[in-house]
Design the sequence.
């Protein structure tokens, strides 16, 4: 067991608002720049993760503004920022339990829960030495944290295309597990706990497993992925935590690739994007499918280097792309019942995404669908968090020409 983990004195520290509001010069949409500290990089949680809490009044983000990567929140009405963690090591793999005011993350090898109201922390599990941890999921009943751990294998990444080193790592077949641990450990009198939960191993394989996402409504249901170049793997997998049954979701035909999977708000439907053909000449698409591989719906996408999110099938947000073949805009697609397909996309806000090394927007709709959060370096001082308002009538936005 690693040394006891305690919050430092800056947990709960209140910081002044940094919010700036402007009108997007091309779309007319109202955009709030929520962070603007020139000495830090700020990112909202990964697009698959719940990040609004306190009845939608606060948004979680991570920042290195105190010298280590920590968790913060911003009050969306006042703009005030609260430091939520003060820990000796960087944190990562952050999520929020969809039904509880609880955040989950890695701090070193420790899997930690954070009460977002009291800021008490609890070490739930310590992963073995020589293993890395993926983004964490919290089950819909708030009872278990679910994640993947994989054997750490060194591959050269400097000055190499991302797809190249990912393929090399995949070929090494790292030992991986998908496991869950209980969240409900008791805290000590200081509000901090060190209760090492016994993990339940649900999947144990010699292949690179990653990206565990928990259904927001079904406690037994999660997805995980087989990591690697999408054209070389069976990417999206479902897992029943009660039976350990696994199955492929959105199986791909020859020449098809899918990934960047996420749950819609119903907890039954999985979203994704992908392509047919090759990376150099793709027919790109996005879509959704029920976890049992029924009721598939797909639309045309402008590029493959992007991300998508939706709460329902009716409105989908996408990043656009950093490549010259596509737009550097957050895009919105609305389902057209009359035609039975997605209407051509509308531009919501520019983000000036320039390359794979630049901050990815990772656009995500708010739970009520009225805003989109995204990251961008367009302010000129590192990455910041932005929030764009979705107009009541999407026809007020320009079409992607």
Sequence:
């Amino acid at each position: 067991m690693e040394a006891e983990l305690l919050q430092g004195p800056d947990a709960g520290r209140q910081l002044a608002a940094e919010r700036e509001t402007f009108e997007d010069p091309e779309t007319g949409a109202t955009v709030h720049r929520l962070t603007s500290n020139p000495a830090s990089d700020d990112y909202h949680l990964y697009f698959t993760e719940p990040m609004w809490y306190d009845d939608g009044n606060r948004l979680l983000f991570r920042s290195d503004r105190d010298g280590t990567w920590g968790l913060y929140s911003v009050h969306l009405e006042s703009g005030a920022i609260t430091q939520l963690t003060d820990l000796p090591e960087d944190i990562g793999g952050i999520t929020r339990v969809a039904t509880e005011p609880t955040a989950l993350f890695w701090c070193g090898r420790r899997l930690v829960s954070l009460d977002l109201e009291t800021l008490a922390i609890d070490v739930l599990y310590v992963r073995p030495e020589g293993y890395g941890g993926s983004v964490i999921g919290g089950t819909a009943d708030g009872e278990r944290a679910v994640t993947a751990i994989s054997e750490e294998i060194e591959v050269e990444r400097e000055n190499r295309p991302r797809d190249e080193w990912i393929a090399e790592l995949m070929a090494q077949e790292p030992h991986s597990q998908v496991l869950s641990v209980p969240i409900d450990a008791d805290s000590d009198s200081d509000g901090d706990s060190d209760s090492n939960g016994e993990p339940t191993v649900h999947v144990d394989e010699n292949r690179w497993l990653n990206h565990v996402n928990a259904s927001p409504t079904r406690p037994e249901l999660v997805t995980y992925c087989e990591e690697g170049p999408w054209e070389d793997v069976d990417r999206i997998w479902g897992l029943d935590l009660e039976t350990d049954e696994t199955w492929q979701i959105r199986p791909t035909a020859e020449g098809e690739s899918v990934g960047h999977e996420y749950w819609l708000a119903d907890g039954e439907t999985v979203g994704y994007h992908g392509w047919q053909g090759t990376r150099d000449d793709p027919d790109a698409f996005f879509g959704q499918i029920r976890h049992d591989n029924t009721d598939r719906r797909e639309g045309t996408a402008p590029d493959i280097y992007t991300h998508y999110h939706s709460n329902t099938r009716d409105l989908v947000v996408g990043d656009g792309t950093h490549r010259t073949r596509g737009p550097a805009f957050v895009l919105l697609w609305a389902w057209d019942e009359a035609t039975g397909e997605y209407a051509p996309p509308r531009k919501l806000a520019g983000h000036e995404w320039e390359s794979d090394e630049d901050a990815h927007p990772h656009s995500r709709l708010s739970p009520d669908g009225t805003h989109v959060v995204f990251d961008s370096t367009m302010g000129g001082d590192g990455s910041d968090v932005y929030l764009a308002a979705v107009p009541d009538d999407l026809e007020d936005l320009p079409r992607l020409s």
Observations:
- The longest helix spans residues 162-171.
- Residues 239 and 245 are 6 Å apart (CA to CA).
- Confidence is low (pLDDT under 50) at residues 187-195.
